[in-house]
Amino acid sequence: MEVKLWNDKRQRDLYDNFAELYAIIRTTEKLEKAYIRDIIGPSEYEVECQKLITHYRTLASTLKEIVPSIERFADTYTMDCPAAINRLVVSGVPATVEHRAASASQSATSAAAVAECVQNFITAMDSLKLSMVAVDQVHPLLTELSASLSKLSILPPDFEGKTRMKDWLSRLSKMGAADELTEQQSRQLHFDLESSYNSFMAALPSSGT
């Protein structure tokens, strides 16, 4: 005997939508696992994932009054599809798009840190040229430079500029605020700054890498 799950067209449409939502979640879970395991390439994954996300959004909008929580829907039907829930509900974009966004953000952050280092190098060298050689004038500039260099993860811990600035800060901390660098010390500091700046620029990755 055939058992009907609906009594009218509205109920039938509702069950059809439930079945479709169930299928989307299951398919997305399989797609995510296939991508993680390199069974499917990034380009194909992104196209298929975007289709599923678009389809899901349309369906979720239709069912929002009846299915306010997709997580609860998945629990009700014991689906156990965490990757799909994350992709469809939490992220809302394919993993490939997330990765590109993260890379762009990291690049922007690195570019800002590089610009800050360059500015601090130039400011410190220009200050010495203007005979700003008192400890309370030099120390803050080298502190800022040292801090900006430390923000850049592409530089190794033993990078020449880092070690030289630390050495100079150690020397300056033993002097009084009103003390001034001698002409020889000033020339040596400027030389160290220029040498460190050149090493810094050489250490930066080229645009093609």
Question: What does this 3D model show about the protein?
Answer:
- This protein is 73% helix and 0% strand.
- The protein is mainly alpha-helical and 209 residues long.
- α5 (95-129) packs antiparallel against α6.
- It starts with 8 loop residues before the first helix and ends in a 6-residue tail after the last helix.
Task: Please give a handful of descriptors for the protein shown.
209 residues, mainly alpha, 8 helices
Strand content range: under 5%
Indicate the low-confidence ranges by residue numbers. none
Task: Give the class from helix and strand content and strand pairing.
Answer: mainly alpha
Largest sheet features: none
> How would you spell out the order of helices and strands?
HHHHHHHH
Rg calculated over all Cα atoms: 30 Å
Quaternary structure type? single chain
End-to-end CA span: 68 Å
Number of separate strands: 0
Give the proportion of residues in helices.
over 70%
Mean pLDDT level: 87
The tally of helices reads 8
Rough outline: rod-shaped
